[in-house]
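JOB MANIFEST
job_type = single_chain_structure
chain_count = 1
residues = 872
[input]
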Amino acid sequence: MAKTQKKKVTPLMQQYNTIKTKYPDALLLFRVGDFYETFGEDAIKASKILGIILTHRNNGGDRTELAGFPHHSLNTYLPKLVKAGQRVAICDQLEDPKMTKTIVKRGVTELVTPGVAMNDDILHAKTNNFLCAVHFGRKSVGISFVDISTGEFLTAEGGEEQVDKLLQNFAPNEVLVSKAHKKEFLTSFGSAFHTFFMEDWVFQEDYAQETLNAHFKTKTLKGFGVDHLKCGIVASGVVLHYLSETQHKRLQHINVLQRIAEEEHIWMDRFTIRNLELYQSTQQNAVTLLDVIDKTISPMGGRLLKRWLALPLKNIEKINRRHEIISHLISDETLQQKLQHHIKQIGDLERLISKTATGKINPKEVVQLKNSLEAIVPIKSLNGHSECEALQLISDRLHSCDLLRARVKEMLSEEAPVQISKGKTIADGYSEELDELRQLAFSGKDYLNKMLARETERTGITSLKIASNNVFGYYIEVRNTHKDKVPEEWIRKQTLVSAERYITEELKEYEAKILGAEERIQSLEQQLFAQLVLWMQEYITPVQHNAHLIAQLDCLCGFTQLAKDHAYVAPEMNDSTEIDIRNGRHPVIEKQLPLGEEYIANDVVLNRDHQQIIMITGPNMSGKSAILRQTALIVLMAQMGSFVPAESAKIGYVDKIFTRVGASDNISMGESTFMVEMNETASILNNLSERSLVLLDEIGRGTSTYDGISIAWAISEYLHEHPARAKTLFATHYHELNEMSSTFERIKNYNVSVKELKDTVLFLRKLTPGGSEHSFGIHVAKMAGMPQQVIHKANKILKKLEKSHSSEELTDKLQSVQNEMQLSFFNLDDPLLEEIKEEITHLDINTLTPVEALMKLNEIKRLLTKNKKATS
């Protein structure tokens, strides 16, 4: 019986297949000689993403796709693969091919994924590269973020809304989720994130505790103040597990786990973050708030500013400390300029010290780290002599790292290269042995010249030449005409057509010395540099600490610059519940105005006693939305610690900002505009607090007019009657809502004034007391260049409609509904209703459990249905 022919696989492909099975979901870059190669499916993907040529090879009769690039181009190609969402396993040669007779040992040295990258070409200087894990617990959801490039490690837990908000704020580059909760994650948080689904066993509490305690070398997590966050701990454990799975085991720079303290910051849901256009806008090329306020000049400052924007403070003392520093820097301009001058000299301290921890730092970067720390010294002394207490506090906490700076200065040459083999790394005078070797290697030319002169004189051969080749090293060349003058002790090595080549004992000795010296220099430099990097790891914490303080200073200098450039003022923060903004402006829109045009500033006063809800009417395009948004942005900037675009601002701190702006369609997700609008509004009404600021823009316009008016009326009434009395700005073009102010004492009408000229309207964009009479929609259509006959027809229809459905009629109806609602149905002479009235009035609502309440309701319902049957 003939044996079935088993196809032979080459040893190289055998090795490749073994490694590939360990990393099935990663694209494997396999180092072969001077190239990184990809095979099969990986090759097809790589050639598409990188635009490199796809070829084939016959592997034991099988055709295998193949695509590769030179190893030194890794930094060019790796970022492209990662940005395309690929997980990339880098497989290197683990031994010198010259040292082995069999196949070279290979192994994966690093797995780079969108959320785990140290490579500068993948990272953005002013943006964190967060890896995130989300864990669905029984009652709450845990979340954790780690940035391996900066060492930040954060965790929190809460409801889906809270986790959703954090995902929006921190915008992680990769999210880890258990395979068991894949569907749940996509339903709750959408498919916009780059997700990686992991085995369920990793998401176990005891395993997470063990992983974290082993990493921090602790017995308990109490010291970090996170031990009560069961789900947060699981998410944090998953993140660390994933880092070690991806071959990132040197993580001393991740040395603290911080809780994101939700209660210390303003709550904003994801709609608000989107509606206020804090970081990104739905429109292309639109300017966001971050674009306007970011005047930071260091990478650390840029990253911290995003954090401040995501988590504005509620603690008045902390906010005032930031305002105090800005006031001081405005009054002392030279101090601000000097500080910014020194901050400019500082590199990315956080990422440099992280590279030190992971052993990925190069000599040039160590010098850069030393120079960055040198720039901190003058900052420390500048602030130390300042009269501003808050600045002194920062300066006292800065660490001058004298020993670290001195050691690097003594040890490394200022012009140290990126690669040790490409230049002089260790400074002259640091190592005697190294200096001697260098003397030998670099004074070689002189030695050879002297030897040549000596031998020429001794032999009388004028055309002597000393050179070297790869075959037998250094030699002396003699032309055939002088062959007879060659001394006998020279050994002939090669005969050419017109010359002979010889070697001498002296030349051989010299050659051994010089070649050995070059190799020895390189290995000695490598050894000394590795020792330095290891020693530098003692300084991880102080350098990280410095980075954080410099980032704060950078943000505050940036806020100072912002205030000076755009005439911002210091807001007065207090713990009342009132907001009083005089001549406030929209920070982003005022920057977009054409030259010479001034932004129309407006006053907004909101409180819980007299003016809780401001109903703003006015036509589209008149600037209602701008007034709403600028109020939220001014409050937000004040609580971030910035000055604000206004003439004056007194702000009783806010704890939640809710917005429902326009019809932000979610149709792509299969929901109607109106449904989205109602979802978002419901989320607001269910989460109100006494310090909330609510902005509602054009609520109810996704449905018919009467429907819309009814919903808007009911929502306004709910906000007015709710015990929280949340401060609300409500922009609408339903003028019928102006009637509410006569019934509800804390609802006030304002309108955005418009000047009517003969056949056009002029938008004055000024907020004035009182409601507006009618809409100018048709005027706007005319201004947009709508054909004349359309405008004409629209005017005719409007007149007809105004006659048949007069606005008074509608508001009369609304008023009567309102009065009816207030008529007690207990006034009716019905013994049954009397009985029910008795039941309800004697209920103690405060002690009633939800189940008892439902049972009581059911009892009342039964009474009514029994009565109904009896009467019928």
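[summary]
The CA atoms of residues 511 and 869 lie 117 Å apart.
DSSP finds 30 helices and 27 strands in the chain.
exit_status = 0
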